[in-house]
Specification:
The protein is mainly α and 465 residues long. The chain is 69% helix and 2% strand. The relative contact order is 0.12.
C-alpha cells in the first residue's frame, strides 16, 4: 500500500490555515474550520490521501481506526459544536430568537479560536493514523474459520463474569470496564456471525446477551452506550445485509439522537431524586412519549452536553494568561495513574488530579458536586498550546493505529484483531478522555491484549503458520 505523496497530507491542514487567515471574522473563521472537518473526512475515507487497505472489502474493515474511531472521536470533537455556535448567535431550535440582542463578539472569537484548534487536532489525529496504517505485514497466526462463530460466543460468555470478578477486587476495578466492553463486542460480533450461518442456539444466546447489554446501557443514564450498542450491531451486520441495515439502522440512529436527550434528562432527574433505575427508565420513557418539553431539553442537550466547546473556551481564557501551560506535568500524572492501587494503596486519586486543573481554570468552583473533566484535546492545549495539540493528537492517532496493526498481527487478522480486540479492549479511543484516564486504560488494555494472545496460543485456538 503506497503513499500518494506528502503534499496530500498537507492538504488536510488547509482548512485550519484558511480559518486562521479569516480569524478577524469569527463567523467565517468558525465555519471554515467546522466545514474543514467534513473535508478531512472525505479526503481520508475515500482514500485520496492514502489508499484504503485492499486486504478486505470496505464494508468489512469499518472497525479499523480510520473509519469508526475517526467518525466517532473526530465527529464528536469537531462537528457537534455547531449547536453551541448557533445558540451564541441567538438561535434556538434553528430559529432566531434574540433579534434585538447584540451578539457577544468576544465569545464568538473564542468559539472560532477553539474550532480552529479542533480543525488542527483533527488533521494531526488522522495524519498519525494514515502514516502508521499498514496491514500488509504477513500474518504469523491464524484461527480455523469454522471455529470463529463459537469462539466469539465463548469469549463473550467468559468475559462477562471476569468483568464482574474485577469489580469486586480492590484496586483492580478498572479492568472490569475493559472486559465488559470486550464481552459486548464479542457478543454482538457473534450475533452477526450466527444469523447468516443460521446457528439457532448461538443466535438465541447472543440475542439474550445483546438484550442484557442494551438494558444495562438503557438504565445507565448515559446516551453513548445506547447509541454505540446500535451502531456496532449495524456495522457488524452490514457486510451481509447492506440494504436492510441502511434502511433500518440509519433512521433508528437518527431517532435515538432526537429522543435520547429528553430521555436521559428525565432519567437523571428521577434517579437523582432516589428512584431506582428501572422506575426512572419507565418514567423517562413516559415523559418522552408524552412529548414533555422534548424540544427544549433536546436543544439544551445539543448546545451544552453534545459538545465540550463551552468548557474549552473557559480553559483558553485562563491558559496561558492566568494559568501557565502544564508542559509534561499531565504526562507525569498519567504515569502515576498507571500504577494499580492494589500495588500502591496510597496512590493519589486520579480524578482529584484531573479536577485540580478544572478548578484552577475556573470551569467549576471547588466543592461543586459537578464533574467536568477536560477532553483529550483540551489537555493537549493545556500542555503546550498549538504545539501541544498537534503533538498529542498526532500521537493519539498513531498509537491507536499501531495498536490496531499489532492486534491484527497477534490475532490472525481483522475479525479477532481490530473488530474484537481493538474495538473491545481499546474502546476508550472512541471517546478521547483526559490524559490520565486514557493513558492508564490504554496501557493496561495493551497488557490484557498480550495476555489474551498467549492464552489463545496455549489452548491452541490461535495457531502459528
Amino acid at each position: 500500500m503506497n503513499n500518494k505523496g506528502v503534499e496530500r497530507y498537507l492538504v488536510l491542514y488547509i482548512p485550519w490555515l484558511l480559518a486562521v487567515l479569516f480569524r478577524w471574522d469569527p463567523i467565517l473563521s468558525y465555519f471554515t474550520a467546522w466545514l474543514g472537518s467534513f473535508v478531512i473526512f472525505y479526503l481520508t475515507l475515500t482514500g485520496w490521501v492514502k489508499p484504503i487497505p485492499n486486504d478486505r472489502r470496505l464494508s468489512e474493515q469499518l472497525m479499523r481506526p480510520l473509519f469508526l474511531m475517526q467518525i466517532i472521536f473526530a465527529g464528536f470533537m469537531c462537528c457537534t459544536t455547531i449547536f453551541y455556535f448557533l445558540n451564541t448567535l441567538g438561535y434556538e431550535n434553528f430559529e432566531k430568537t434574540n433579534i434585538y440582542t447584540l451578539t457577544d463578539t468576544n465569545k464568538l472569537m473564542l468559539i472560532a479560536q477553539c474550532q480552529r484548534y479542533y480543525s488542527l487536532g483533527h488533521a494531526a489525529f488522522v495524519t498519525g493514523i494514515l502514516l502508521c496504517m499498514n496491514y500488509s505485514e504477513k500474518k504469523k497466526y491464524y484461527i480455523e474459520k469454522n471455529t470463529l462463530a463459537n469462539l466469539l460466543l465463548r469469549i463473550a460468555l467468559i468475559s462477562l463474569p471476569v468483568a464482574v470478578i474485577f469489580t469486586r477486587l480492590p484496586g483492580l476495578s478498572q479492568f472490569s470496564l475493559q472486559f465488559n466492553s470486550l464481552s459486548f463486542i464479542a457478543g454482538t460480533l457473534a450475533l452477526a456471525f450466527a444469523i447468516p450461518l443460521k446457528k439457532s442456539l448461538n443466535t438465541i444466546i447472543c440475542l439474550v446477551l445483546y438484550a442484557f447489554n442494551f438494558y444495562q446501557a438503557f438504565t445507565s443514564g448515559f446516551k453513548e452506550p445506547i447509541i454505540i450498542s446500535v451502531v456496532v450491531l449495524g456495522i457488524f451486520l452490514y457486510p451481509n445485509y447492506k440494504k436492510l441495515v441502511t434502511i433500518t439502522f440509519g433512521p433508528l440512529i437518527l431517532a435515538l439522537f432526537l429522543i435520547l436527550p429528553s430521555y436521559v434528562s428525565n432519567f437523571r432527574q428521577n434517579a437523582w431524586s432516589g428512584t431506582d433505575a428501572d422506575e426512572s427508565s419507565q418514567l423517562a420513557i413516559d415523559a418522552v412519549l408524552n412529548d414533555e418539553d422534548i424540544d427544549d431539553s433536546n436543544w439544551t442537550f445539543f448546545v451544552y452536553r453534545l459538545s465540550e466547546i463551552d468548557m474549552f473556551t473557559t480553559f483558553v481564557q485562563s491558559t496561558p494568561i492566568t494559568v501557565d501551560y502544564y508542559g509534561t506535568t499531565l504526562l507525569k500524572q498519567s504515569a502515576i495513574a498507571i500504577i494499580p492501587r492494589a500495588v500502591w494503596p496510597a496512590k493519589p486519586i486520579t480524578e482529584d488530579l484531573i479536577m485540580e486543573r478544572v478548578y484552577k481554570a475556573g470551569v467549576i468552583m471547588r466543592g461543586s458536586t459537578v464533574s467536568a473533566k477536560p477532553a483529550f484535546i483540551v489537555d493537549g492545549y493545556l500542555s503546550g498550546g498549538l504545539i501541544g495539540i498537534f503533538i498529542s493528537l498526532f500521537a493519539y492517532g498513531a498509537i491507536a493505529q499501531l495498536i490496531s496493526n499489532k492486534a491484527e498481527h497477534l490475532f490472525g487478522g481483522y475479525i479477532l484483531g481490530s473488530a474484537l480486540i481493538f474495538s473491545g479492549l481499546f474502546q476508550i479511543f472512541w471517546r478521547g478522555l483526559s490524559f490520565e484516564f486514557l493513558i492508564n486504560s490504554v496501557f493496561w488494555s495493551f497488557i490484557s491484549m498480550i495476555i489474551l494472545h498467549r492464552i489463545l496460543l496455549r489452548v491452541k485456538i490461535l495457531k502459528k503458520y
